[in-house]
Records
---
Amino acid sequence: MNPLKRFGQAIRTWWLRVMMACLLAIPTGCQDAQNHPNVWLQKAYLHEGRQEYPQAIDAITKAIELEPDNPVWYFDRGVFKEAQGDLDAAVQDYEICLQKDPRNVRARNNRAVIKITQHKTEEAFEDLNLLIEKNPTFALGYFNRGRLNFSIEHFDDAHHDLNRAIELDPQAGMFYFVRAQVQKARSESVHALQDITIAHFLMPDNDDVRKLKSELELSLD
């Protein structure tokens, strides 16, 4: 093996061992690591991967204490809180993130999704309209506004938004699934079946997709 390559691999192995030792020993050792927010961030991700959300929140809070002006930490903590079902607390973190970084697309989108879940339609529209205005190529913005329009039976507006979402991301099976629902509501069963067939190809294990596909196939027999 090339000596320089062998040396580089040795350095990377040593560094990984140091970082893992620090992550595992933070409570009793590696004092310098305790003062680095990225170490706490990695601990938070480890806990998130195990679905240990309270521990993930505690770890990311340590990162925030060390670097309170970084909007990313608030977004990540909001994600962890949302995952454990604490939606109001998640919204608070997304709002802090947006105060520090008004252009954060993911924070605004996530806040809008929670508002949809909470049936706060006007607030959700406000977020999504601004999101799309500032980020006209963000497919999830159109998708979420489309399903919000669908939920209030604005089928034409929903169809328009979902068309745009699919143009931007033609591999997202959920986009076709929701558009199929919209087309079914508009009595366009043939087009709905076309969309649900694509959705089933992209998401073959989704029970809701399979159910709607069967319903549409029976209706067209």
---
Amino acid sequence: MGLISIDVSHDGKAITVESDNLLDDIRKKVKHLIVLNPFQVYVEIPFDEDLGKNEDKVFDAVRSVVNNIKKDLDKVIEELTTRLEDLQIEEAAGKSVYDQAEKSMKTAEKKIKDLAGITGTDVRKAVQKTTGSGQLRSASRTVFRGIELAREAFDEHGAGEQPSVSRDTAKALSALGKEAFKLSQQEKDARTDLEDALNKQLAQIRATFKENQKAAEKEEKKAETDKSKDKDKKKPEPIKDPIVSEKDFDIKEYAKRHQAEVRAVEAARTKYVDLVKSFNDKLEAGKVEFTKFYRLLEKAKEPDKDVEEAFDKFGESLGTILDTMPDKLEAGEGCLRVFKDDFKGGASFEKALKELAACKGTTKSGKNLEAAGAVLEKLARQT
């Protein structure tokens, strides 16, 4: 389980680190025990300085960080597979070990998700150290898609256990449905708040243009009038915020002079991205319970038609909501660039707003998920 190669690039505006799946080399080796979903790395660090001769040093430092995370991932998987193999031996001796196997899987999954959570920070620190820069920002969409026990690895149901597992699983799905509906509403509100913050900032910048244009014209006329009266007259006081036209506008300089406004946009962006990430994590965890329920239905000789119908509706709604998450994360993270990219008449702001507006709301699907989960829980209690 050696080191892996990753893509590191610098386009003059940001350093980007990407890998489709850090676990791709190990997943086939453990497929008899677990289904190991992708560990996808994406980190973007706004950096508009020329790396020059430092580029190789920076790229090597970043790769070293990710390779160390890869080593930690491999260690977690090795420990999990060793534990599961021991449990298989106990099961062969007649013991019921499914719950223990699932508990071990969940523990490993949490460790891997924790590693996903620190990847962006570790990469950013490596860039800061090798470039000698101060505090940099980073946007990380590094995510782990979870683990499942392989279908044939363990006997899922001991004697008399199936109804209990079914009830517990249905209860978990019902709870997820309620949470998904609530978070769908919160996501919509947070997205609107972020759009409002961007629109307010863009309007303020454009209002500044007009104010300064008028001030500049007034000072110019005044200077011309005074010139004929007093050639030695003092020069007019400089305009406090010298942005006269969009052509001359430097967004980075503006951000330095208007830190409070920048922080307001950043706070709205952080709130939105954190909410979407949390929402996505809960949905991914819910997929595990959904898969467990699916296996129950598969093993049932004559599955209840009402249960199947509610299950299908739940699965459809869950998939619909999950499909919207990548675009929402990308749109939220993209707002980082509005104070980094060239202003170009507000093009960076308008692009960010367009991407946010294109995000699909999931309130309806969240309500359907909640309703289907409630039906599943009710039917499971009747078994």
---
Amino acid sequence: DIGKTTQTIQSIATTLHDLTDHPDVLEDLLVQVTGGTIRADCDDVTLVMLSASAGLSEFRESSGTFDVAEAVEEEQPEIAYLDTIETTFLTLTGRITWLYGQILFDTANGAIEADHNLVTDLAHCDYMDSTILGTLHELSVNAVSQKRHIQIQNVSPALRASFEELSMTVVMKHIASVPEQVPEGLTPLDLSMSQLERQQQRLLKAHEALSALSQENQAQFESLLETLRSEMDES
């Protein structure tokens, strides 16, 4: 999910076949499958191509000659909140990714620690990456442990499928069958306020939370967790 167009294995294979004779085949492949634009919040991508031919073996690193630009999102993500006497309402709009994990956690967990109930409305949330999914699980667990009411509502079929795939049982138990009316006048959070170090910590904690939910999750996120811990030790 690094670009706006989702590629299939077949479409990537077809493009790669057409580029076989190009000297910078992987660089050209990346440009073509992304349309020359990459999302600002995309995950790291490593392309490796193995080929067999007669003669000496060689290892060739990227020439760095590809040209991609940051994609301009048609709809900017938004996290907004409103506090009532007993409840904090949160709305998530658009693509909510790891860039906004810490500010989401700070806002929602602050409400829980202030003894507020928490209603998270996903009516306009198009996408959550694994960092946000893990953060949502952590918040649900925190609310339950502090005996606060937590409600997740207006969940799309795609997001529900992600919850089920990652065994997010606590989250699924708190999906409301009848959503509450979200009040008017919510205040958008400033999503530009983020610190790299705290983002790295959030990435780690969120994926540790998901990894603990099932053996499948543990296998899926094992290498990512090793990388995150190594990067944090070096920083």
---
Amino acid sequence: MRRFRERDERPGPQVDGTTARLRSRASPMANPLEVFRFRSAARTIAQVLGVDPAPDCVVKNGRTTLTFRRLGGSRWTEEEQMAFALRAADAARRVFLDDERRQLRSAAAKAMEVAFEDASVVQGCAVSARWECTVPGQR
């Protein structure tokens, strides 16, 4: 039986609090994958936009993804989807800049993905729809 002296020697994903660091077995020199979930920021974004439930707010390697579920957004017209995506990205940037956490402040200027996920039943079959847009970062 092999014993591990240091945490990073263990095979498989390494989890540390709210940060998940996954190291590639093929390339030990590769940068770790960092995933941060910010539920409190998501609640504030939802309040600013006036939506319920709050979106999932994930910052992964500096890229922010806001996923809105059960809004019906994947069935809206393209103009409505784009208008909401731009509003959501703007609201997220304002919330991130007011936050004291470094990860959020640094993610405010970068590109953001806004996604809608909806599920329904069509002729007895579960159907899921996803629409996503990448809003460019601010320079």
